[in-house]
């Protein structure tokens, strides 16, 4: 069995590649980073280290890689795979779609064997988004044919994998915790399960609980930490003011999620506590600039800040801490982050109100825009 995984980065090697390999798949990575691809091709293996007192090392063997910039190689890899997964970043999905579409066309010529394509990105409905991009590269007739043998089940992935700074370019250190949930109702029946994956019939409560707890809390620590001059999430979480903001934001999203999905409040409290402990993991060093990366994406309408705040507001709940975090996100001016640079440019050109309205999709005089502006001016 062969799995093609787009993105040999931190989550690709440290989570998805590892689980697929442990499930008996021969993993082939597609990446645009030439030296990463060459090293995987030469070595054919890498090591995952667990960030806890055990320091356990897990070898991942029998892996290979192809150059993601080679359209023929990508199409052939898609055509011959038993499973396709991605962890490239949600905004990159449109760039890998042509290669997947070309691979699906080859599969049509060769008997149209069933295929699952699973996007493992931090976004709601990422596989569905990828499906739309892929279908855009097929004719109407090809789309109908593709829909009969290619399914794009949505998924939620959770494992903190920081930026890696090892001598060995393939080594990857990951936290012990992981959760990979896949929407079974979007899959073909009778397909082989991946070990360690939790299959569910309704993914929405799982992806929203993950995105609006782990990722909302994480970016709260990142933006507050960045503002106060901390380098890592672990340092930031030692600051009571930062930890207080994270707790406040997670109480707000927690109340919203409990109301929306009927989660048990005590269990959700426990979920929040576990996540705060994960952020504090002393065996990890996770840079605030990684966790805060791409602030325009993080302030977009369906992402981890605006969507839960609006939902809380609709329910009559609190969202003041979320508002504070949005204002801090607008101040994330890390010069090496292209979206941070673009956002600062928007603010300089149009002012904070208009810039926030543009990235959040809200009206400039929307209640939330007003509150974010007020928080921004008081910070
Ligand atoms: N790191 C985490 O803790 C974590 C956890 C859960 C989910 N995620 C999500 O996983 C995704 C990847 O995150 P990451 O931290 O692994 O990022 P990363 O930057 O470490 O890895 C992304 C990889 O994709 C490659 N890539 C870029 N364009 C490509 C293309 N056109 N074709 C093939 N490969 C391409 C890059 O070269 C890089 O190696 C993101 O959506 C992120 O939100 C990350
Ligand atoms: O990957 P992003 O930019 O969407 O979010 C940054 C981090 O919050 C994220 O990578 C977490 O580490 C991860 O989602 C944990 O499961």
From TrEMBL:
Please give the biological process terms from Gene Ontology that the record holds. mannitol catabolic process
> What GO MF terms are annotated?
mannitol-1-phosphate 5-dehydrogenase activity
The enzyme class is oxidoreductase
Q: Keywords for this entry?
A: NAD, Oxidoreductase
**One Pfam match, by short name?**
Mannitol_dh
The Gene Ontology CC terms held by the record are: cytosol
EC number(s) from the headed UniProt entry: 1.1.1.17
- Catalytic reaction equation(s): D-mannitol 1-phosphate + NAD(+) = beta-D-fructose 6-phosphate + NADH + H(+)
Q: Oxidoreductase: present as a keyword of the record?
A: yes
Q: Which residues form the Mannitol dehydrogenase N-terminal domain?
A: 1-195
Q: Where is the Mannitol dehydrogenase C-terminal domain?
A: 202-376
Q: Where does NAD(+) bind?
A: 3-14
Give the protein family: Belongs to the mannitol dehydrogenase family.
What's the name of the protein?
Answer: Mannitol-1-phosphate 5-dehydrogenase
Q: Which organism is it from?
A: Paenibacillus rhizosphaerae
